[in-house]
Design a protein that fits this description.
- Residues 29-78 are annotated as: Disordered.
- It is a single chain.
- By secondary structure, the chain is an alpha/beta fold.
- It folds into two domains: 2-200, Rossmann fold, CATH 3.40.50.720; 204-339.
- The chain has helices at 10-19, 36-40, 72-75, 90-94, 112-121, 135-142, 182-192, 202-221, 226-230, 234-248, 256-269, 274-283, 286-311, 321-324, 326-339; strands at residues 2-6, 24-28, 43-49, 81-88, 100-103, 125-128, 147-153, 156-159, 164-168, 176-179, 197-199.
- Strands 8-9-3-4-2-1-5-6-7-10-11 form an eleven-stranded mixed sheet, with helices on both faces.
- It is globular, with a radius of gyration of 21 Å.
- The termini are far apart.
- NADP nicotinamide-adenine-dinucleotide phosphate (NAP) binds at residues 7-12, 29-31, 104-105, 109-111, 114, 129-130, 153, 155-157, 159, 284-285, 288.
Length: 341
């Protein structure tokens, strides 16, 4: 398949390296040099893979990075590989046809020329990586000629220095979990082959962010301090339970102690310094985190209004958010103060 990743960021570059093993794959960047030179010799992004391929003989494309301090614990396993992925400009993408375009920017945030180039390319499938409530609908209205799927990255990936991106793919996990039109997801999975995407129902796709994003929000409110998050787990745990209720309709009991144990397990089993990664990485996506909290609050309010109108059709005032989802509301307010200051 011919696949384009929009944006030479953390996910675009890492996923392109993984897709590029089997498919014609490029990353398209607003900052790639336009003109024939860029067309003939595309920019490269160095990637550090924490999983060594079966055949690990060094090649022109593999090299041991000097700055292997991060991912910290991976360095000690001695399993590192650097790959290069081609980065091209939009003119290059526009001159060819593509089967799949993966957006790593929220559709509504795309620069106008970028959105116009994507429309002009008319790929049969566009996948968005944002899971903010309403972003899929925005993509559907922006790109009516393409099938819109949602891809949830199963990687941890980060831009480091210069053109370097480092990522960790949990063992046995795909690159993306995909949801959307069942036939389109099935067809895409077949054409991509195993290991790159798995099909997941939409409700299941939105549950994991509902569980973990409130902790990300608390981390941001606490200036990215993992230690401060670890000692303030009560509010995000309650907000997480409210968000899960908003997306699934099910109330799942959660405890700050249980959350602490999960964080312990992450620190133990994920071969990167989770605290450092999370503090740095999520600071770049605070606006999106806030929109996700607001999205769940909105879903909660709609759910309550529906329930109320069924129970009492004459009453049209639904309970306030402070009653429905107090922790989610409080966390969103704290993050809003930070994002807008
Ligand atoms: N990183 C992870 O581990 C991870 C994990 C789970 C989910 N996600 C989700 O995946 C998505 C991408 O995350 P990321 O970490 O890869 O972000 P990122 O590193 O910021 O990359 C996004 C890229 O989009 C391009 N871009 C930014 N603003 C744009 C605009 N206005 N118009 C057009 N292009 C624009 C930029 O590339 P150019 O300047 O090169 O065009 C930028 O590098 C986010 O929704 C994030 O929540 C990420």
């Amino acid at each position: 398949m011919k696949v384009v990743f929009q944006g030479a960021g953390a996910i675009g570059a890492a996923a392109a390296a993984l897709f590029g093993r089997r498919h014609e794959t490029v990353v398209v960047s607003r900052s790639a040099n336009p003109g024939s030179e860029a067309l003939n010799s595309p920019d490269t992004v160095r990637l550090q893979d924490t999983v060594r391929p079966q055949s690990s003989a060094p090649t022109r494309d593999t090299a041991r990075p000097r700055d292997a301090a991060y991912p910290r614990r991976v360095g000690s396993t001695g399993r590192e590989t650097v790959r290069r992925v081609p980065v091209v400009d939009w003119a290059t993408v526009s001159s060819s046809s593509w089967d799949l375009v993966v957006l790593t920017t929220r559709p509504g945030d795309l620069d106008e020329p970028v959105a116009a180039s994507i429309s002009g390319a008319r790929p049969s499938i566009i996948a968005i990586t944002s899971q903010v409530d309403g972003d899929r609908d925005i993509a559907v209205s922006m790109f009516p000629e393409s099938e819109i799927l949602v891809f949830s990255p199963a990687l941890l990936s980060e831009r480091t220095t210069g053109r370097n991106v480092r990522y960790w793919q949990p063992p046995a996990m795909p690159v993306f979990m995909a949801s959307g039109c069942r036939d389109a997801v099935r067809r895409l999975r077949r054409e991509l082959g195993g290991g790159l995407i798995v099909a997941v129902p939409a409700a299941l796709l939105s549950a994991p962010p509902a569980v973990f994003i409130p902790y990300v929000a608390e981390l941001s409110v606490r200036e990215g301090s993992w230690t401060a998050l670890r000692t303030h787990l009560r509010r995000p745990t309650q907000a997480s339970a409210e968000a899960v209720h908003a997306v699934t309709g099910v109330r799942i009991p959660m405890s700050a102690r249980g959350a602490g144990l999960v964080l312990d397990a992450l620190e133990l089993f994920v071969p990167i310094d989770v605290g450092e990664y999370a503090g740095r990485h999520f600071a770049r996506h605070e606006g999106q985190t806030l929109d996700m909290l607001n999205g769940w609050a909105g879903q909660m309010a709609r759910r309550a209004a529906r329930r109320d109108s069924q129970r009492n059709p004459k009453r049209n005032a639904a309970p306030a958010l402070a009653e429905l989802a107090p922790a989610l509301g409080e966390l969103a307010q704290a993050l809003r103060l930070r994002v807008t200051r």
